[in-house]
From TrEMBL, chain A:
Record-level GO cellular component terms: plasma membrane
GO MF annotation list: ABC-type transporter activity
Protein name: ABC-2 family transporter
Residue ranges of the TM segments: 20-40, 60-84, 111-132, 152-173, 180-201, 251-269
Keywords assigned: Membrane, Transmembrane, Transmembrane helix
Origin species: Xanthomarina spongicola
UniProtKB/TrEMBL annotation, chain B:
Organism expressing this protein natively: Xanthomarina spongicola
Domain of life: Bacteria
Protein name as it appears in the record: ABC-2 type transport system ATP-binding protein
Keywords: ATP-binding, Nucleotide-binding, Transport
Family: Belongs to the ABC transporter superfamily.
Residue ranges of domain ABC transporter in the record: 5-229
Keyword flag Transport: yes
Length: 274, 298
């Protein structure tokens, strides 16, 4: 396993473009997070301090940071599709197989890399959130800090799932740009399917089915936190109530998709003449 | 003899096209094999199948008597197919390091093999800055990294300039001289003739011949003759049952043998008949002539 990871890391880290993209995908969410956590003084007119809003309180901070950090997953998604696209365009995939890598090992080396980067991203967010939380939060008891750390699990699963989808699209179309276009097409298709179902049946059924779609199920893992922030400001407004928690069945759906995408990528490679 | 690769009734279909048809042959240790065939005869497809990049339709193949899985067997094989494929953004040494990681070879081999192909001074230059000849030599270094039991080369001199071709051939000869088994696919016959001891001839995916180069067609060779009294010589040759076809071209008489006969015997015979030769050469058909005879038969 380490051998396969090591192999892929060499391919990625010696490539300047992917090195920059990986760097950006880690550094950008951080910069945003840290910038938002400091007090910004707008030339003496007014000061903006997001911490005052209570969004950096435990346990809600886990929800906020993972939600915003996951918006930056697109940068690493480009790395994932290009690491497949490059293997095809340089014909190095063929050479790797001839040199004695099995098709299974090839897919696994990509998958391990995805898991590795998702893990690193999750750990970094966890550490950063923890310290910002300690600084701003009104409550710092261990039991409150620990609460809702399942958002970190959801964040990890979300990244792995999303990158596995990118891996599959990369294997399917062999070209990085087309693979990214496919992601966009899938996004539109999911909404069209949602539209058709809600027109044929009703909104409720459509929403339930939509939660099983690949992109939507990944999104559902970490619901938007805005409504929740509003709820803390206006606790008496009952119509703002919604279910924002991470559920095990949501994780299970995404894990199923992940397994399916990896399996399909393998099948695709196995059947293909290179 | 110890078989390295045996192929049994291998068939590959691309849709309606049959690229390889019921092919069987065995590669034994220590020999240098050539796979001959015109373009599109299924050479590269056959190599692709045994190298795990093309899926077979039916039939099977076994590496090292089938004792190891294909991808593990390939770690003991060195192969170059068509064009050198490396990561353009890595240097030569980094590319070879990656191959070492795949094959499970010690990094110390990198410099040793780069030395063999004369690329040691360029080892820290990016692959994308290499000329085609250098890329091809790097591919050979990469294929040699694991000290392979068999070296597979598919058109290794394609697209190279004369110097490049000469360098590659010299490297192949050196490697063959060390006793490494080599499988060389090419449509350049003189190339195969210069290095190979055995050949497999393919045409439209079918095997026409496999065996030693010099036994490819049952021929005893021919004499090229010249003498003052051409008429007398021709009459004699036509009356002698040991000779088959006799051709005259540019004053040179070419007489094909039906029975084995060496030049000394023939010269003595001529002298006894009172025919004095001014030119006598005994030759065998070149591989090119043999190949054309074989492929034209069908």
């Amino acid at each position: 396993m380490l051998r396969l990871l090591n192999l892929e890391l060499q391919k990625l880290l010696l490539n300047r473009t992917s090195k920059i993209l990986i760097f950006v995908s880690f550094v950008l969410p951080f910069t945003v997070l840290i910038l938002s956590s400091i007090k910004i003084n707008f030339f003496g007119f007014f000061t903006l301090e997001l911490g005052e809003l209570g969004i950096f309180n435990f346990p809600i901070i886990w929800h906020i940071t993972t939600f915003f950090a996951s918006q930056f997953k697109f940068f690493f998604a480009i790395v994932v599709v290009s690491m497949i696209g490059n293997e095809y365009s340089n014909k190095t995939l063929k050479q790797n197989l001839i040199d004695g890598l099995s098709k299974k090992e090839f897919i696994l080396s990509k998958f391990y890399t995805i898991v590795f980067f998702s893990l690193v991203a999750t750990l970094l967010i966890a550490v950063a959130s923890f310290f910002i939380g300690l600084y701003y939060s009104s409550y710092t008891e261990a039991s409150i800090i620990i609460r809702e750390t399942d958002f970190l699990v959801a964040y990890f699963v979300k990244l792995v799932g999303f990158f596995s989808l990118c891996l599959f699209f990369g294997m399917l179309v062999k070209r990085s740009a087309f693979a990214l276009a496919f992601l966009f097409i899938l996004y539109i298709l999911e909404w069209i399917a949602f539209g058709i179902i809600s027109w044929q049946a009703n909104m409720d059924v459509a929403e339930k089915i939509q939660n099983f779609f690949p992109l939507k199920s990944m999104y559902k893992l970490i619901d938007q936190p805005f409504q929740r922030v509003m709820m803390t400001k206006f606790p008496d407004k009952a119509d703002l109530m919604y279910d924002y928690a991470v559920h095990w069945h949501e994780i299970a759906i995404v894990l199923c998709w992940t397994a399916l995408f990896i399996f399909l990528s393998y099948r695709l490679l196995k059947k293909r003449d290179l | 003899m110890e078989p390295i690769l045996s192929i049994n009734n291998l068939t590959k279909k691309f849709g309606y096209l049959t690229a390889v048809k019921d092919l069987s042959f065995t590669i034994n240790k220590g020999n240098v094999y050539g796979i001959l065939g015109p373009n599109g005869s299924g050479k590269s497809t056959t190599l692709g199948i045994v190298l795990n990049v093309v899926n077979k339709t039916t039939g099977d193949f076994k590496w090292f008597n089938g004792t190891v899985s294909t991808h593990n067997a390939l770690k003991k094989v060195g192969a170059i197919i068509e064009r050198p494929n490396f990561y353009p953004y890595m240097t030569a040494a980094q590319n070879l390091k990656l191959v070492c990681k795949i094959k499970g070879v010690n990094y110390s081999k990198i410099d040793e093999k780069l030395e063999i192909v004369n690329l040691l001074d360029r080892k820290d230059h990016k692959f994308s800055t290499y000329s085609l000849g250098m890329k091809q030599r790097l591919a050979i270094a990469s294929a040699l990294l694991n000290d392979p039991e068999i070296l597979i080369l598919d058109e290794p001199t394609n697209g190279l300039d004369p110097q490049g071709i000469h360098q590659i051939r010299q490297i192949i000869k050196d490697i063959a001289g060390e006793g490494t088994t080599i499988l060389l696919a090419s449509h350049l016959l003189d190339e195969v003739e210069k290095v190979c001891s055995h050949v497999v001839v393919l045409r439209k995916g079918e095997k026409l011949y496999s065996g030693r180069v010099d036994e490819m067609i049952s021929s005893h060779g021919f004499f090229e003759l010249k003498c003052e009294n051409q008429e007398q010589l021709l009459t004699y040759l036509e009356s002698n049952p040991d000779f088959g076809t006799v051709k005259v071209e540019n004053q040179i008489i070419t007489a094909f043998l039906n029975e084995p006969m060496d030049a000394v015997t023939f010269n003595k015979l001529m002298f006894e008949k009172g025919i004095v030769l001014s030119h006598l050469v005994k030759r065998k058909e070149s591989l090119e002539e043999q190949f054309l005879q074989l492929t034209d038969k069908l």
